[in-house]
């Protein structure tokens, strides 16, 4: 194992230092606060999003009993690198397209929201990638996600705040496509299992995400109060439904922590697309209920019917935790548009077509580029770790037992 440590010592530090040097140089040329309007985003709102991506997702992914250091540590690494990369890509687009400059607080908030896509994708390949592969995946995914948003904004006229909510959809399917290129772990592998302690830490991350999710959905929305209101009630109903379905679907009639861990967040993911425009809270509550149902039932269908024939291993269940609720949210947004604008039939078809088109474009770009990225990450250059070393902190960290 020592030879592998020397390999990472010769690659990881220098890759990080190289990227950081490039970031510093580009920041020098691209960013200036001269003539920038005052921010409409408060520092507490940014902090809520920052808490989500650092604390929330950092602990959310600690359910594997021998991969806790890597889950939290690598999450911090890809977030801080991803935020810088996201700001630079956004800066390039502003410069090339001659768009108006935004203040630094709004730029860093948008970058923190964007990097959520990478964190979600990491969950699909959790325990199977080394730090070099994660860093490369972070840079590639951030660039592609911004290109996807740009296509949706310019060609399909999707509002900026709604296109940003595609992070869950894009992150889930990009991660699944990357994961399809990695070898499956042994079904009998004990290292991929959880313990009561790791489940408790993971649930702590879920609680962080649950508490701050209204801020995530509202931070870039035009009608922030409505977005907060609808998101909270969608989350509340999805949490209640998760407890109900958990006890109804288990053989022994007991609650299962994996159900609560994933389904209580589903309402926040689903309602994100339309949280700012839903006029009645009961609509958000119905979406929260449906999201929780599709998450728990989807976990059974995907793990038993779809994943085995596709030979797809989704380490932390991002498909049914984020992917399926995001699909439901995109479809619900189209239905709500039809209901809201049914009297204006001539323009309704184009409006719905553009939103459905944005949904299809996002998934297509995520799957294609994710699969290509997975193939690249499996090149010998990136020293793919053997299946026997999956889900193992000791391969990267000093661990004392």
TrEMBL record:
Protein keywords: Membrane, Transmembrane, Transmembrane helix
GO biological process: ammonium homeostasis
Record bears the keyword Transferase: no
Membrane-crossing residue ranges in chain numbering: 12-31, 43-62, 74-96, 108-127, 134-151, 203-221, 227-248, 282-302, 322-339, 351-379
A GO cellular component annotation in the UniProt record: plasma membrane
Cell compartment(s), UniProt: Membrane
InterPro entries: Ammonium/urea_transptr (IPR029020), NH4_transpt_AmtB-like_dom (IPR024041), RhesusRHD (IPR002229)
Official protein name in the record: RHD protein
Species annotation: Burhinus bistriatus
Gene designation per UniProt: Rhd
